[in-house]
Amino acid sequence: MTLYADFVKRRSLGLWSFLLVAAPLASAGCIIVDDDGHHDGHHVHDDQNDGDDSAPPTPADDVRRVAIDTDATLSTEPGEGVGIFVEYTAGGTWTLWTTCDTNTSKVVCSFDIYASVDTSSELIDLAGIEIEKTDATRLVDIGVAYFHAETGSDIDAMTFATTPGAVVRLEAYLDGAQEPRFVYWFGDGVLHEGAPSNPLDFKPTGP
């Protein structure tokens, strides 16, 4: 089941810890696939045979830039839809978090997400939130963060800090395929469903 706008809403910053604690955790290391081994039209790949997914992606020629509202946050029910959510907090803190449609599909979503800044900005203080042993966060190059999440009926998240107001480039994959249609953020007061390019550059409305 795809995540629609009705399931995505603004939330207060104070709700973040509650949502993560309340969300049921997926069984570590367990991936359930349907009869033909596909999730939402994409093959569910075996990480053990894929090599190093954390290698920095190659630069794209056609990268769009969009505004992301400072201090705007999102909320949705874990397990009810596929989503990659992007939030920015004043002072330079970014949060990327993922959900899946596992409650209906019975399949776990495998996300590979890269976030990077240009050479004039810093990316530091990388951390995972409520991630399991099948998930990973790490710096793969100077200014490049990598987030791997096996998301089921839970929420997986990565936070990092940048130079305040820095432009952050996001590149997102679901089950090994580029999937910009599942990226959500608030920009200019509007909930955006799907990115116009992958990678995509986010420019905060305030530092």
Oligomerization category of the chains in this entry: single chain
Runs in which pLDDT lies below 50 for 5 or more consecutive residues are: 1-7, 9-51
Reading the helices and strands in chain order gives HEEEEEHEEEEEEEEEE
Identify the overall geometry: globular
> What radius of gyration results from the CA coordinates?
16 Å
Count the helices. How many? Answer: 2
User: How large is the share of residues in beta strands?
Assistant: 35-45%
Class derived from helix and strand content = mainly beta
Write the layout of secondary structure elements.
Blueprint (H helix, E strand, L loop, with lengths): L14 H8 L15 E2 L2 E2 L20 E5 L14 E7 L3 E7 L2 H4 L3 E8 L6 E7 L6 E6 L2 E8 L4 E7 L5 E7 L2 E2 L4 E5 L2 E4 L6 E5 L3
Parallel strand pairs: 3-15, 4-13
Antiparallel strand pairs: 1-2, 4-5, 5-10, 6-9, 6-11, 7-10, 8-9, 11-12, 11-15, 13-14
